[in-house]
Structures are given as structure tokens and as C-alpha cells.
Amino acid sequence: MSRYIATRAIRGANLITQEAEALLNKALKEKGPETPVAFPNTAYDLPTILGMTGREITKLGELPPVLEHAKDLLHPVPSAHCWTPYLGETLDCGMATLLSAEIIEAVRFVYGEEPGSISGFHAAGGSFTSPDMAEGGNGMGRLNGPIDDIQLRAWGIQLVDGRMPGFAAIVGAAKSNEVAVKIVRELQKRNILIFLCGNTNGRSMIHQLQEEGVEMGYDTYIVPFGLDTLSAIYPIGFATRSALTFGGMKGGQAKDILLYNRQRVFAFVLALGEVDDLKYAAAAGAINYGFPVIADTRIPQILPTGVTTYEHVISMPFNEIEGKDDLERAEKLVQKCVETRGVKIKLTEVPIPVPYGSAFEGEVVRKGDMRVEFGGKYSRAFEYLRMVDMDQVEDGKVEVIGPGFDELPEGKAMDMGILVEVAGRKMQSDFEPVLERQIHYFCNGASGIQHIGQRDITWIRISKAAAAKGFNLRHFGDILHARFMADFGAIVDKVQVKIITDPALFHEWLGKARSAYDYRNRRLADMTDEVVDDFYTCTLCQSFAPTHLCLVSPQRLGLCGAYNYLDCAASYSINPTGPNQPVRKGRMIDQVKGIYTGLNEIAVQKSQGAVQEVSMYSIMNSPMTACGCFECIVMLIPEANGVMVVSREDTSMTPAGMTFSTLAGMAGGGLQTPGVMGIGKYYLTSPKFISADGGFKRIVWMSSILKQTMAAEMAEVAAREGDPDLIGKIADETICTDVDGLLAHLEGTGYPALMMEPMF
Ligand code: SF4
Ligand code: ZN
Q: What number does CATH give the domain 358-518?
């Protein structure tokens, strides 16, 4: 253990705790102890304080005991001669730093100083994203502040299934703008979330990326938290909330939360530029979580001890890294970070002229930036994947049949069809839709390409920037070949792609594709829970929620919405020892509730005894548990004799008196809570949706976004239920957000749930 690091970390911790004390006293005097404190859009109060101390802070007057706790953790700055610094003391001081930092940020919110904005933003004459994205909620020259719960959950599934291997907290500024961009691109390529905080002599990586026109925000996996070191508390809060959200831990389980992060959250700190006392102190805080610190300057290292099996602090002076230029040095620096933390990464080389990685999946190509589009308002596009015989596929062949877009004026649209033909000994026609849906993710991974929709409502845009770099139609084929072979190599042996723009051929294949979609729809409708013997388990989320198990049946998909029955079947074929295993239903115990011996046995086993019985179709009796990634929460509203359905996107108040964020705390964590359930939104349209409790007509309130985005599906359900006006009668947040309003609305519309038999 380095005495130098200990000294500086301890000094930094003492200073910041004093600062927290002074600020808190001032706030208490000026604002009073009853003043509310909160981080916006999170149900986890001040998350690090909640996690580490169990205190649910809601007002200023509750902070002094936290400060006292931080002060108790402090140690005196070691004297120059006769004290041997010890890791434990440094770690304690690190924890004190985190608590103090969160107190300071909370007080800043009280004063409206957080989240700050980027100075020089207007002077620089640019914005993070163009004005039409202005309500996106992040970026835009404003710093982010804490990540909201909705985003945390949205990333959840990617974190658990390994698509997003971890996060990098970058503190300070890179050697040059060029290096900053390179570091970020290297991380994006590996799908690592990037959190930016702090500065070096007033300059931050946030400035550097802004100057280089790099888009920051949730969509690009780059979150600009703040310009000072204190904002490093947000990544730590994110890590703490991961444990609370996905690990089912409760506030105050400090040791478990730290251990959880050490074992499951692959994160590291990259300290760029000079490291001052406060940065050492914050780094000591991160080490508590098992997150190593890699510095690009010369500082003493801390090598493995009991707390981590890997190094705590690594020094890799930037100019001494071997490499032909700074770009290569940046690449090696990122490589070192990844190795140090042991971040697991699957990289697929995709031979196209633009950067590629899931970090680009959410990228938007705006009209003004668009070179050409396919589908949407002015043209049509479809995509169709089909299985053919081995000898009909020439692996890797990509054909563009018809004109390219070279001749087309900028910003125009044209028709295009993507036909993917696959062959493989283990391929089954049931897997066609599973693979076809991947086209969306695969195409979106290319920087400057936007893909929306599927089947014959596909809508693709190519940006001017991507076109300028040489991206053309055949590259879609190159992407699809590379990714299908890499990700589905276990079931697909050969892949060829035809990009069809020739008008006659386009029509011919659109017709063929449509009959295939029809056939699949009918096949899916015929697939009921009764006709199959096996359901599938999904234990993918156990890496985050160790006792949670999804049971996936033809009529009930996984609660994240990402795994339906066929997905699980395909996943099982690809990886027979993976997270999706067939499970015999076994002997029927209760047909209405959907309780079977085989399902119970697997639930007991996979939940390590936490769940004894599970019913497929009831929210009231032994409902299925949830991890953290549900698309919707269904919850009993006793007064209305029905349930409400709250979508993850809905931030408004609900008749239960809680927002989605708060409800999520009750629904998740692998606990069985009668009356509360996390579900995938397509389960709502299944005839088996809480069929034991009365089915779809029990829904008395539903987030309006579900009504809008699933209008067609909902209309079908209404018809099935024999009441075409049913959806209109269901209340939503624009109609009421409390029980009285709900009851008045239901009585006014004569809603069926009120007349149904009591739910319990
Ligand atoms: Fe997680 Fe369930 Fe989705 Fe599997 S189906 S990834 S366990 S939420
Ligand atoms: Zn999950």
C-alpha cells in the first residue's frame, strides 16, 4: 500500500468532508431542516447514502447524521515519518468521500445548482444534439446529473445479457481532443458505457468531445455527469442502484452491495491528467466497490491484496505507452483498462467503412443529416429472412440487385428490400422470425445508420456522414453476414444477402415476404400453452437478480419483452447449456391459475427455495417474480376491483399513489408479491393475461403510451373481449392519477371491472 496515495486520499477526504459540513450547515440555516432533498427521477433517494447507511433521506434535516457517519470514517492525515499507512484507513476515507460528495450534490440540488450546464457551451456555438431533440432529457449542453431509474432499467437487460459489459468512469481530460475521441470510440466499440466527470485544470473530456462534435447522451452511451470530481458520485450511485434494483438488495446492506459490484459490475475508473487529493479520495471510494483505477500519469500503483484479485491502481503514463502515435497509445490504454477489470467482451469485426458497435444502436439520423431513406412516408422497405437448402446459399455472397442511391438527390427516399437467406443443419423454420428481428439491432450498430421497425414497415436512414465515408447498400449485407455468423453460428452455417431495389423484383419479393409474415402469424396464434409440453426457463437475469426466474410459454413472454417462446427455443439450440432450458410442465395442479408440478419444481430449484409455487396466469396467487427489467408493472387497485398497468416510459403519478420508479422497487428483486407483477407488454394482449383473475377486462387504468404504441394490438384485444370501445374506457394518466378520479371515470363509462366478482 502506497503511503503517498494514502496520504493524499486521506487529506482529500478530510477536506471534502469539511466542505460538506460547511455547506450543509449553511443550507440548514438558510433553507431549514424541513426542506426536501432528492435526486430527480429515482426511487432510491440519495442512492449511495441509502445503500451504505440504510437511511432514506428526504429532507435536509436528515443529513447531519450521515455527515457524522462520514466523519467517523475519517482518519488523520498520516505524519511524514512514523505512520505506516494502511489500506483499510484509505478505504474508509474513500467511503467518507462518497458520502460527503453525495451530501454536497444533494444540497446543490436544493439550491438549483445541479445538474449544471457546460460553460462555454454557447460560446462554442454548438449543441450536443440538434434542437429537435431538445426534449430528449439529456445532453444539450446540460450536464446529466443522476441517471434516472427508467434509463437504469432500460440498460438493465443489456447489462445482464452481456451486450453491455460494464462502465468506464472517466475523470479529467485527455491529452488532446483527438485522444479523447479515440478513447471514447474504443470504449463504444466494446459497448462499454461511458460516464464523464471532473476536469484537469479546468478542462474536461466533456469539453473535448463537445468541441469535436461527438454526440453525448443516453442514446450514444456517453453520459456527461459533471465538470467537477464530485460528480463521480453519480457513477457510484448508478452502481449502488444496480445492486438495489437488480440484486434485490436493501438499503444498508453495505457489504453485500459492495461485494455485488465487485463480482458483477465490470466497471473501472480512468483518471486522465493530473491526480489531485480529491481525485485520490474519490478513487479510494471507487476501490471500495472493487473498481480499479487506471491513471494515464505517473503515480504509485496499488497491487492486488485481499479486497480485489486485480490491481487497485495502475499507472500507465500516456507518453510512455508504446505506440506509433497518440491514437495507438489511446487504444492501448483502453485495452489495459479492459484487461485490468477483466471486462468480458465479444467483438465482432464488421467490414464496413463506419464505426460499428451497440453504442450506436440508439443513434438518430435526423432529416437534415440524412443522405437517403428507405421506408417511412415516401418509400417502402421490407426485410425478410428465410431458411433455404444448403446448396442454395453461397456463404458471404452479397448482391445489390437494382440501382444504388448514388444518382438519387440528397435527402430523398427509395424502395429497398433486404432478403437474408440462411442455411444450417440446426436451423429450423421457427427460428426465422427470431433471426429476422436481429436485423434491426445488427443494422443499427453501424454509426450513421438508423433502423426502425421490422418486416414490411422497416424504415432505414443513412446519414450524409456515413455515405461520405463510403457506406453503400452492399454494406448492409456485409453487416448481416458478419453478425449472423458471429452471433448465431451455432444454428446458421451459411448466410447470403440480397439487397433488392429493382422495382419489379422488389414487388415480387414484397409479396413473398408478406405471405411468409402471414404464415408466421397464423403459426404463432396456433401455438398455445396447451399444445406444448415444455415451457422454457430464462435465468439470464440471475447474474443480477440471483433468485429470479422467468417462465416463458407460448402465451406469456419474458417480462423484459426480449424473450418470447421461440426466442428461448432458438437460444436453447444455440447454447444447450445456456440460460434458456426447456422445462416439462408436469402434472396439472390448477388449470385456471396455470400451476403445474414441473414448473413449481424448477421454480423452487432456480430460486434457491425463495419461491415455492408459481402460477402462470394469476397476479393474486403465487404470481411470477420479477428481476428489474420489466416493461410494465401490473398492480392491483383494490378500490376499483381491477388492476393498473404502468409502462416503463411513463413518469407520471398513478392511482396507486406511486410513480413507476417507486413501484419498481416493490415489483422487482425476485420477490413474490401478490397483487404486483412485472411483465412484458405483449403479455397484455395474450388471452392468458391474468386469465385466472378475470383477464384483460380487469385493466382499469393504463399508461397512455401503451394505448398509443400498441393501438392495433389493443384494438384486436378489445374485439376479442367483445367490446370494441374497451380501450377508450380504460383510464390513463391524462384522465386521472388518483383513486377517486379513477372511480368516477369508471362509473361514468360503466366499466366492466366494477361489475366483475371481487378480485380477492
Ligand atoms: Fe431476464 Fe426474464 Fe428477460 Fe430472461 S426473460 S432476460 S430472465 S427478464
Ligand atoms: Zn431482468
A: 3.30.1650.10
